[in-house]
Amino acid sequence: MLLLDLSHTSHTRARTGIQRVARTLQSALGSGALAVTHDPYLEAWRPLEPWEQTNLTAVAASEKRGTAWPLAARWRGRFRRVLSRPAALPPAEGIIVPEVFSSAVAAALPALFAATAGPRVAVFHDAIALKFPEFTPPKTVARFPPYLRELLRFDGIAANSEDSRASLADYWRWLGVPNPPPVAAIPLGVDLPDFHLMSESPPGPRPIVLSVGSIEGRKNHLALLEACEQLWAGGTQFELRLVGLAHPQTGRVALERIHALQAAGRPLRYDGPLGDAAVNAAYAECTLTVYPSLIEGFGLPVLESLAHGRPCLCSAGGAIGESARGGGCVMLEAMEPANLAAELGRLLATPAEVTALAAQARARTFKTGKHYAAELVTWLRTLSRRP
Fold first, then answer.
1. Do residues 293 and 266 touch, judged by C-beta distance below 8 A?
2. What pTM was estimated for this model as a whole?
């Protein structure tokens, strides 16, 4: 059995990328892993309680990114800390940490590591805070260098893409780390209902262009909104639908632009965060998708779009380009308003090309969450415990 650290994900119902990866791992590993959390009120590691398990399986998405601990859970932890010694975690063959852990969790990792003599693996998502600090909250930028150093405690790092793997290896090389742990690129999987995979593009009075992703600076929604406004002003008929949780800091300007366009009567729909079933339905209803993000650790919405048989307009660079290669995508070198407007307008004017791209998407095969989990565990078992 493995130990799976879900200290953050078990205390939020947000559906952003890292939480989705953590939930997928917990579901795919099943009885092969015990989900645990560091309880700051108990000041110890413990298995998840029923209310935390409920957070993992909740259908509705949350409007908030942060964690929440009910008052009863806080007092329960404090009383247990005072009245009884916390129970030790059961023996395990290894540890997987799929989250970007906080400084408080980092301080508690030695106690978690003591629960096993087996390998300890962390999932590395991206180096966005290093490459694009201007699009990253200041607290995250300040936290990131210590986090990258704390990853050196692990026996192996599973990066979500080759781009992320290279970014981490380059950073450690720049630091002059003499003997870093091995870093392997293990791309994520995608799980979707079979009936979506071969669905035809739905008929409707006008095409629907869908964009799924958090509303935040690096996701580049301002460029997409400007591109769509150029097309609308020129008479192109389509609806833009946006799905995703808005970041209160880096997404504020994009939100203001969304509201301004809606007030001007543009066919723009913003749904906020949605649960998995509603996101699947949005893919099924759209004609094509646009993922304007400048940088990702993986680019899961690109593969989700393709797995639904929907073409995707996205970046050709970095991890997004890695996911997009293989058919069904139109990739741009520069995700700027003029480029987006020109290519999106061309696709909307040539339905035959959209149909051909959709056929390419449906012809692709996709790694599932179970495949990803199995690949990760297989790699973990090849690692040796570092001193």
1. no
2. 0.90
